[in-house]
Amino acid sequence: MFALDEELAQWDSILQEAQGAGRLPPLASLAWHLRQRDPARAQQLSVEITPLLDQLPPAEAAVQRARLLLVAAEQAWLRGELDTAQYHLEQALLLCEQAAAALPTAAAACRADACWTLAWVSNDRGVSAAGDSWLRKAAAAARIAEDPLRIDVIDAASGICDAFGDWQAAQQHWNGRFGTDLTGVPPIAAGWISDFFGTCAFQRSEYGRAIGHLMLSFETALATGQIRRAIIVATNIGNGFTSLNAHEAALEWMQRGLDLARPTGWPLSIGMCLMQTAETLRQLGQRDAAQSLLREALNTLSLLSGSRAYAVALEYQGDLALDLGNHVAALDSFTRLAARGDALCQNDFQSSARRGQAHALSHLSRPDDALAAAQAALALARDHGDASSQIAALNVLADIHTRHDLPGPELMMAPNAVLHYLQLALEIAATIEGYTVPGALLDVAAREYAAIGDYERAYTIALRANAARDQTHSKEATNRAIAMQVQYQTERAQTEGEHHRQLAAAEAQRAEVLQQTSATLEHLSAIGQEITAHLDAAAVFRALDRHVHGLLDATHFSIFLLEPDGETLVCTFGIEAGKPLPALRVPLSSPSANSARCVRERREILIELDEKGVTPHLIPGTLPTLSLLFAPLRVGDRVLGAMTVQSLQAHSYGERERLIFRTLCAYGAIALDNASAYRQVAATQEQLLEKNLELEQAYKALEEVSLTDQLTGLRNRRFFLQNVDADVALSLRGYEAGQHRELTECDITAPKDLVFFMVDLDHFKEVNDRYGHAAGDSILVQMQERLREVFRESDYVIRWGGEEFLVLARATHRDEAAGVAERMRRAVAERDFELPDGGRLAKTCSIGFACFPFLPDQPRLLSWSQVVELADQGLYIAKRSGRNAWAALYSTESTRAEGVFPRLMQQLGDAVADGEVRLVTNLEGPLVLGGERRRIGLSSDLELG
Hints:
Elements: H1 5-17, H2 24-33, H3 39-52, H4 58-78, H5 82-99, H6 104-125, H7 128-144, H8 148-165, H9 167-174, H10 187-203, H11 207-223, H12 227-243, H13 247-261, H14 267-283, H15 287-300, H16 308-323, H17 327-344, H18 347-363, H19 367-383, H20 387-403, H21 417-429, H22 439-451, H23 455-472, H24 475-516, H25 521-533, H26 537-551, E1 556-562, E2 568-576, E3 579-580, E4 585-587, H27 594-601, E5 605-608, E6 627-635, E7 638-647, H28 655-706, E8 715-716, H29 717-737, E9 754-761, H30 764-771, H31 773-790, E10 796-801, E11 804-809, H32 817-829, E12 833-834, E13 840-841, E14 845-852, H33 864-880, E15 886-891, H34 897-906, H35 908-913, E16 917-921, E17 927-929, E18 932-934, E19 943-944
Parallel strand pairs: 8-10, 14-15
Antiparallel strand pairs: 1-2, 1-7, 2-3, 2-4, 5-6, 6-7, 9-11, 9-14, 10-11, 12-13, 15-16, 16-19, 17-18
Helix pairs in contact: 1-2, 2-3, 3-4, 4-5, 4-6, 5-6, 6-7, 7-8, 8-9, 8-10, 10-11, 11-12, 12-13, 12-14, 13-14, 13-24, 14-15, 14-16, 15-16, 16-17, 16-18, 17-18, 18-19, 18-20, 19-20, 20-21, 21-22, 22-23, 24-28, 25-26, 25-28, 26-28, 30-31, 31-32
């Protein structure tokens, strides 16, 4: 599920030496465990893995493909693309189901990870009930996989989610599951269990204890590649220090979270860090900075407006609006927060929303509403033992009584209502370990004591207020806050301008070069247009080589490009005296290579050597050149590599030659950068094509599933309706071709007969009632096996509904139909069915069938659907007349199509008696026809009439 950093290093080492199919295990492990550490590389490895999967057995390939879908899904989830993530995860679950029979353990582990990610996708949508359900499914799958590490992690995560809703119930439920002594517990599980303990402590307002647990969780998250978790925990630690009014420590942890979040681009991670930093800045009095960060946080989190993080941002927005005196906006924010808190079923939001509403309502001159909201907030906080929320609610109650003349509370233990609530708040504050009482709260208490004449106590509390302010608003914390704000504004401005700078860099460089080479402007401009028109690096090399030799004295010309690691230069193109140079790799740190020095120093280097002297740093196998000119290949602030021209003549490169070479370098850099970008675009397009192919394959698989009954594996009614018309049309074409001769009902030479069989298990409801639905399902599965024994491969065997099956025999003559029906009846009646508990059960079936065309000698035929209903009538006759039988309805020559069908439906008995319809059956009567029981003799050819 997660892996330590040293394990990744081992897989990387194995991968370097692996060849062919042996690369798949380390590739798969790295792609999975880099999914948050390095998403771009994880995606590259996934692309390399895909073709290797064809060499695996089907079940193993399905599990690996599911893993690749999980990698893609996690990246989409982290980017806030929740619909895309959910689609990938659902596809992964389907693949896991396919592989479950052959690889139960691996498939179950994969299914656990898919459900795990679906839980976080649901939570980010704000659907906490669905998130809890997916976590339970993940835990069940982990137990099937017998993976204790996954079980511990998933259970701890479930405990964390429960703690946000009701920490007391969560603690009671999960404390027995986890021990406080984590000695010997694997680091990954220990981190999540510590997170659970820290969350419970945080909800109890035991912030110091919570911070201790969360710090262990932060370290393990970092060491195991759980970057998003590390960011969340860092901001929670910062929030804990903020709750203790230790703002300097809070800002330090906010900075850690921001440093981790910024490079990822993940909206929820960045939004959380911004909003938590904004709240700390607000408490330090930096309201403008807090407002700017909070606005950015809400904008970043807009795609995840159902998440808990967005609800926290609403709470901070409301508190900031109160500080700024904008009580209408504050009321709006807290009303929205109340709705989110109720939807998420999380008490901390419910309490803080009502506390904020009370504060805003009080300032909007609605004292009665304010008092009711504040009392509701206090009651919620007390019910859940939230000391911090109780202090906030009591502070608001005191403020309401200060501003409005309202009756005091019952059992008031102070001279007035304001002091009553303030004393309660101070008493609760004293119970929170490490908590610094806010100076503003102490100031209010001091003023109230002074107002009633208790100046000594007022003076003592005022001294405490000053000390609290000094501790809370320390110069170091304020300076750090300002520095963070300046840093963020600078980085944001750089980010916003980066795109524009990149677009302008090539043109600016080109303009600079053209200005320096005014003497050859027209010629070099044409050269530049030619070079930059190429999108293939090899074509760029050839164009540069041609123009370098045309404009300069160049015995030697070579191009060095930086490798992606930024540590090595590679000679990708080199010509000396008309002969290609061998490939050469130069460390960028090389003290002797002029090409490396040119790139390091980002400047042009000209070297003039004495003919009689020794050429230093000569590359083996190259000529002793005397003039060497090196120039960096730059695009804006980026250096791609270096170009060099060298001559056997001394002083070959004056100012003009250097300007020309500099211009060629500029054009070459632009062209090579464009070629690299084009390769990346082409690779992206190829990946998109592969993804489209995957989607098409997935669609075909889903279409196949939609046409198949999931219990029996038979085709379903939808499949039948899609295909029956084609067979009917083929039958009718044969019928029309034979109209030149008279056809009788049993004429076996009639073209393309279709026989519709309706098969129904007798007394099937008794199976479900007596043995259970599992037994019923088992019998239905065995029933489809017996159907397949009797009918041809080309026949359509359809599960029509419940215990009823429809078979379209596509190549059975109507005179053979009775024999087929009898074989089907015997296949069921003469062999017991097996029950799941090992027992056996005898069952019978009833069958009705009818042939198409039903009236070949009449101008208007019955439709296939009417023939199906005739087969159903035959089934009805067999059922009502004793079961374990078959019955079929045929027309006679005297039958008239205009009237036979409704008469058959309404007066079937009379139709048979009158000879208009012939009934063929293996029943010996009495038969139930037209609602009456009749005894009809059995003729020698099994026909009744």
